């Protein structure tokens, strides 16, 4: 409310009062006029005229007059004054009393007036106070309203609009109306909102269009797919028709495909093996032949049924339950063990057959089986030999299937399962160690696992075969297999020759030896570890674990005149990678061995340690013969120098036939064991 | 000890350690073997109270000779001298212990003839105030001596008819004894080396000859008082009094030829083609016969350079070297390792 209005209001209120006051006054005056007749004058009006101080004076004087008169009366009474004087005095006192009363009345009237006046003022003040409060409340209310209005956000502020510059750039001029909008922010805002609306409409249209085109494409794809599916059976018919043509042209694509079909049903490790060996055969080595043998239907059945993992305890429980419910005859313990064994050692019905044909007509046939529960690959070996091979009695088991591939890689004896989990599985099923089942299932060589891509690390059974493992080992393994067959055959030949007393030396090595060697080989026999270990001069080798129980032992006797040399020959399965070790004892006049004769030790050293001179290539299959020849040569030297060096008189049994420039050399008085092929004489090392 | 089947392991089985030498400080033992390698062992570590089997292996070895075996070692104050096949080479002890040995100098034996390949069988270092001399007994039947300060060959003593096995010097450096395959021990005066002063022939002496074992004399030693000489080989080992040139005692080792002999305190130590180290009294009685690992012993050495590590080491045709702290029995063995 404006300030001009406020005093008006005050005026109005006062004006309101004034008529009221007038009314009251009129009433009172009318009342008085009723009560008091014209006899009485209005004392109220008198009050206004008289001053209060004067009245107080009058009051005081009247009081003193009264007191005086009383005193006078008293004195008069004392004096026994006349009744009239008393009456005068009494009348004057009465009049004084009447004055007092009037004064009292006046005072009262004055009070009343003053009170009325203060009331009025108070009322007026209250009224104004209330007005003030009203106005203050109104102000607060209005302020609140103002802030609310100011905070109001319209929905249009929530819309993200393009920036101002972009807007002016992109909007068409009829919307942007640059000239007007640049000045007026409200219009600008409106223009921007309009532009936003335009844009949204356009995008909605685009969306609808894209959806439509998408549906169109989907339909097209469906149509094409149907078309292709209809094509498939037609192609099959064409393929069937080509079969007779293939046979006519002798290009067995189908056969290859069939094999590959079968290959798909192989268990993963055998599959890897098959693929890798076929690849190797195609790429490097035409002498290999790879094929899959076995029962395809059974394999398909296994593949479709999936793996069934049986727990022993569960199956037992089931059996018990069954026997309670239906009175089925319980299986005997034996047959259950048989069943379990069969289950554990079950082979996959398909096997991969690898034939390695060597150049000399021999071939090695390997059949790889996969044991399903034990998850390892086992090998069955067989050899077909060419006609011209001679067999030897002492070396008869060299080509036996059990031992021909032992130690193909160092330490790979193939007697225990390479999968560490198998031990626990077999034990859980109550079966014996794997070694006892090898005759049934085949040999679990490590290289067979590698070819199948299975690599068993410590405490970690790898279930998924990896191609890289197979690839890494393929070439080496095939090479080693061939070498092994070749060297075993060569060994057989050599042992056969030794049995007849001949040491057959290859022409290329014949130059390493002198033409005349007198000592002769008189016997060659197979020996055993136990026989070897009891010999006193062999103790050093046994103690230092240079020879093991699994090695191959031979014993041979060489003679010249009355001197007899017995030699023990130890070779590992890995011949000729590791050359054989010779241990010698000579019986000539008295027993001499490496223990009591240092020349014998040197002879052994010459044969055992310096054998690399006898090999032209890295591993030579005939190193045994060469070593043997060298032994014979050294024995000759030993006997000749020993005889020449002795002081005894009498005819010499052994004459000097070899040429050497110095018989003894060095603090150990070594004999000239070393033969120099170009000069033809013997010297020392 | 498990040896694998490799060539190195097999070589180890056929190793013969021909000679040993203690370092001047007495803490290390150097050995040479028939493959031309010198191996160093730490005596101080092996004798420590907390020594284990690892301390009994060689701490370092290097190929000192490419041509063949090394037959003898000798030491001066700071050099290790090795000889055998090939030239005589010297190595600094400090460089050897730092594992980077280089040849400091080398002497060669003059070659005579196309097939001659003389080996050096024995070395003796003689340190006098006048200088240091090196004596070598060689396979070409001569004894040579070089002056180590100038590096020149000073003497050549020829007279033997077969190669020289062993030599021994008197403490004054003037008299040298050489034992040879031809069966004689020649005594030479170094200052006048044209001819031997005297020649002892044990195989012609009744008391010690053993014709079945040969006439060769493989080892000779002279004692510190310079009156006595002991020699052994094919004939029985015998003690000779040098002034009267007679054999006073004979040491009987039936069927075994002694290949190394030395005087020690008042005893004689000898060993040879049987796996024992013999201790003898001077009068011919055997004091002890200590068994050892090598079947044929070529060298017995006592560590005189440090009293704390006074051990006796016996080496021969085995890759193990026996170490005796109390000379009466074998305490443990150093072993060579293939590397």
UniProtKB/TrEMBL annotation, chain A:
GO cellular component terms attached to this protein's record: THO complex part of transcription export complex
Biased composition, class Basic and acidic residues, residue ranges: 15-34, 332-342
Lineage top rank: taxon: Eukaryota
Primary subcellular site in the record, as a coarse category: nucleus
PANTHER family linked: FMS INTERACTING PROTEIN, THO COMPLEX SUBUNIT 5 HOMOLOG
Pfam families according to UniProt: FmiP_Thoc5
Residues covered by region (Disordered): 1-36, 305-343
Source organism: Magallana gigas
Biological process annotations from GO: mRNA export from nucleus
Compartment annotation: Nucleus
Coiled-coil region list: 190-224
Protein name, as recorded: THO complex subunit 5-like protein
Keywords: Coiled coil, Nucleus
InterPro entries named in the record: THO_Thoc5
Molecular function in Gene Ontology: mRNA binding
Family assignment from sequence similarity: Belongs to the THOC5 family.
Automatic annotation (TrEMBL), chain B:
Sequence ranges of the WD repeats: 157-198
PROSITE patterns xref list: WD_REPEATS_1 (PS00678), WD_REPEATS_2 (PS50082), WD_REPEATS_REGION (PS50294)
Pfam families given in the database record: WD40
Keyword terms, alphabetized: Repeat, WD repeat
CC annotations in GO: THO complex; transcription export complex
Gene3D superfamilies listed in its UniProt record: YVTN repeat-like/Quinoprotein amine dehydrogenase
GO BP terms in the entry: mRNA export from nucleus
Protein family: Belongs to the WD repeat THOC6 family.
Name of protein: THO complex subunit 6-like protein
Protein's organism: Magallana gigas
